[in-house]
Amino acid sequence: MMRPTQVYRVDGATLTRLENDAPLWQLDLSAVSSVSYAQTSVSGVTSRYLQLEAEGQTRRLSQTGAPSGPGDDFTTLITTVLRALHAARPEIQIGWGIRGRARVVMFVLGVLCLLVGIGLPVAAIASGVSSDRFAAAALPSLLLLALGVVFSWANRPWEPLPTMPLSQLIATLDTPTNDS
Question: What domain of life is recorded for the organism (predicted)?
């Protein structure tokens, strides 16, 4: 089921979400204390979101669908919001990556991969399997260990997100890619 098109307006340092041409909510970009951006792709479906936090409000602009690039509506929207935010708060850094519950879930998945990657060879040794079967289980175990290290290390919930200047993300979003 598709969501109806969402309409946003950026006027100076104010971001407004409109519904039926009436403001649904407004966010003062000069009051933003935290901003983050994440993009993930799985099986040809890309999810992107820009999360803004200001004065107890959290607003998330998100899109899930086919991969897209510079010039698409969502990229234009978030680039416009980031430019307005940069004008209002030039010193603010943007966090890069998933956060909140999604980050904890990715961390837990990484730990589970690590445990299974360690557990398979231990179980094989304990059950006395032949060296042929043990060798066959080695590659999946190594892959699970590698995935576990990558997912758990990259998504440590107690660590802050890596940050970058807003101008750097704006430039990245403006750059054409080979697949768009």
Answer: Bacteria
